[in-house]
Amino acid sequence: MTSVASAVMEEILDDLLAHELSCAPHVAARLASELATDGPTIRAVAARLDAAQRQGLRALPSPLPMVPSIEALFAHLELAPADREVLVAVSLRLDDRLAPLLDFAGESAAELHRGAAGRHLDMHAGRVRLVEPRLAIWLRATTSRSVALAVHARLHRVFRERGEAVDADWHRARASMHGEPVAAGELTRIARELSEAGRSERAFHLAAEAAAHASGTTRDEANLVAGVAAIAAGHAVEAASTLAKLFPDGDEHQRLQGLGGLLVAQAHLRGAVPQFDAEAFRPRSDDAGLWYSWARAAAFAAVLCAERGDRPGMRLWLDELREGCARSGAERSLRDPVVALAWLVGGDRGAEDVHGAGPLTGGMLRALHAAIEGDVDRGLRLLAVGDSGIDVEVDPFVAGFESSPLVGAYRAVVEVLLLMWRGDIGAARETMLRASLELPIAVPFAGLGVVIARRLDLAVLGRLGPFARALTSALPSPVRIDQLVDRGIEAFLAGASAEAAACMRVWRDRGAPQTTMSVPGLEEAIVVADIASWSTQRIEPPEITLAQQLRVRITSCSDEDWRVERPRVVDAARTLTSPFSRGRVEAMIGTRSLIRGDLEIGREHLATAVSLLDVSGAAAWSRAIAARLASENRLSTSAGDPLSSCRRVWESIVTARELEVAMLVVSGASNRDIADSLHVSVRTVEVHLGRVFAKLEVRTRVELTVLAHRIGQYV
Asked: How confident is the model at residue 5, as a pLDDT?
């Protein structure tokens, strides 16, 4: 997608959100493509869809529903039967190659172009499409069923004569899909081929049609192909309902092959991996094929549990995986890489030298290991190799679905995550926008892509944009992401520091929930020393860990220690290569220096932070720090006490003596100095200070001092 297309999609998503018709970005992009980016028509069609279709949890109807604006657009179009058939053929084919259409029409390209149908066709470089994409909907809605079946039959003959078996079989099946049930087997075969080629949604429609005309094991196979194709496209609702038809009485081979897809669908819809008695589903024989299917289902369950922080569940399913692989001889190809992937996703780096093949247990796993070892660039290169088509290995974990939208979504989320870790915030957001217009980004890693999209919007825009809001709406209702940090970041970047700190305190009190794979939060607005022992391990590069350690040192050291600690923190910060991570650390150094009265040093660090954040593409962060720097410059050139505003605000909250104590603390005095100055005991100072902390909702002297200076800047 170009930047212009992304801007257009932003307007479309915003309009749909305003009319409470939120669509997942990839669904909205599909509507925009088929409806010529006509906003009112997109809105009218979206209103005819149910919530699951708009979320991408169910496939869009084919064709899209006719709405009055499309009907009015072609109200005066009259077509001769032969011209209508040519245009209908364009709308029904599997691809857009020109040569088969010329065979269908029995004309040359020049003759077709000169004819009445030619003005509705765009023919270029051996390809052909309708000039007006909305015409396909009108044609499908106004063409009789008998004519459509006749067009399919003619296309079957064309492709048979051309020796193109897949297209020929598909059109033959479509021409006879309401005839003999024997067509079901052909549809299922073609659907499986399309699914393996990454055309998951079309595969689902064909296999679902096959299942409607089949019985027995043939129907089970069709339901299996339809269900796994549905989840490969991200259509969790249809995957769950279709694969559930295999249980409890379907063919055992089909049941076990479909169990993994069913678990993926149910986990996304329910927010947790379903709990059931594994004993009831294990193979009853020594058939190695059955045990291999069971091992793959256990592999999916283990990774799904890991994504959701369910370590006990992960361990149980890894045990099932090990047994299944031992009985099927798949220890090295399936067991070892999946175990490594599950532990990594669950928060344990595991064995860096264990990986599999293909897009997930191969390229993605290697990329993550490279990044957390400190070489993010190498991780991105490993992903690029897979995306280039060079890496064509089969991945035993997702065999047959290496090219599927769901696997593509997992890889896209990891690519964006690595770009964030490298500090390329602007590039990460652009990559996320492009991916979200094509892939079911909300599904992988229990909604991690949605969390990332929200943080990127906040970093660049300072607010949640249409893409992030639409992705959030695409999550099923049981799936929850913590939004307190997002609210805190938005408040912080808008200058509402007290509100940001309040959000972060509530977040801390709720156990500081966070994703296992590290996503930037708001460490600036909270003293983090007391939550350094978070139980959830974070997967991140060493630089991200170092930046966090530096933030802890900046916020937790005493005023007396800061003068010695600052040069050490500065030296360590200079080793950070991520402009985003270093920019935030530089901003904190600058703020702490200003609080200590080191004005020139503070301004220098703030200016450095602005430049680094600007380079990273985090425009909102850069603006926020630039505003802080400008405010400090104004204060330094103005007469009077910069803390006078703070004193006025606090006079209405604390007593006179408490105010005296608070202002002396802000000036840097120790409790002993304050006691001597006010002729009271140190214990009395501690009591007054404790009351000040409670009334102003702060916990330390550092927080009190930061609050005082922020009030001076913004009040």
From this structure: 76
- Contact indicator for 403, 409 with CB cutoff of 8 Å: no
pTM (2 decimals)?
0.86
Residues 622 and 668 in one domain: no
The amino acid present at 36, given as its one-letter code, is: A
Contact 227, 260 (CB under 8 A): no
Q: With H, G, I as helix, E, B as strand and everything else as coil, classify residue 347.
A: coil
CA 582 to chain centre: 25
Confidence at residue 2, expressed as pLDDT on a 0 to 100 scale: 39
Burial class (CB in 10 A: 0-12, 13-18, 19+), 670: middle
DSSP string, 70-137: HHHHTTT----HHHHHHHHHHHHSSS-BHHHHHHHHTS-HHHHHHSTGGGGEEEETTEEEESSTHHHH
**pLDDT digit string, tens, across residues 455-495:** 999 999 999 999 999 999 999 988 888 899 999 999 999 98
Residue with tokens 């229990």: 446
The pLDDT of residue 371 is: 95
DSSP conformation class of 186: H
| Residue position matching structure tokens 């991570």 | 581
Q: What is the pLDDT of residues 139-152, one digit of tens each?
A: 999 999 999 999 99
Q: Are strands 127-130 and 121-124 parallel, antiparallel or unpaired?
A: antiparallel
Question: What residue numbers bound the domain in which 685 lies?
Answer: 644-714
Nearest to 302 by CA among 321, 287, 289: 321
Question: Does one domain contain both 653 and 627?
Answer: no
Q: By the 8 A CB rule, do 294 and 283 touch?
A: yes
Q: Which residue has the tokens 């269908």?
A: 104
Q: How far apart are the first and last CA of the chain?
A: 44
Q: Which of 637, 665, 680 is the last residue of a domain?
A: 637
Q: How far apart are CA 173 and CA 510, in angstroms?
A: 57
pLDDT under 50 in the chain at which residues?
1-4, 528-536, 639, 714-715
Residue 547 contacts residue 582 (beta carbons within 8 Å) = yes
Whole-number Å distance between alpha carbons of 73 and 68: 8
C-alpha separations of 184 from 95, 178, 222, 320 in Å: 22, 10, 8, 35
Same domain, 559 and 630: yes
Residue that terminates a domain, selected from 622, 637, 652:
637
- What span, in angstroms and rounded, lies between the C-alpha atoms of 329 and 333? 9
Shared domain check, 575 and 607: yes
Q: At what angle do helices 466-473 and 3-18 cross, to 10 degrees?
A: 60
Q: Report the interhelical angle of 701-714 vs 682-696 (nearest 10°).
A: 50
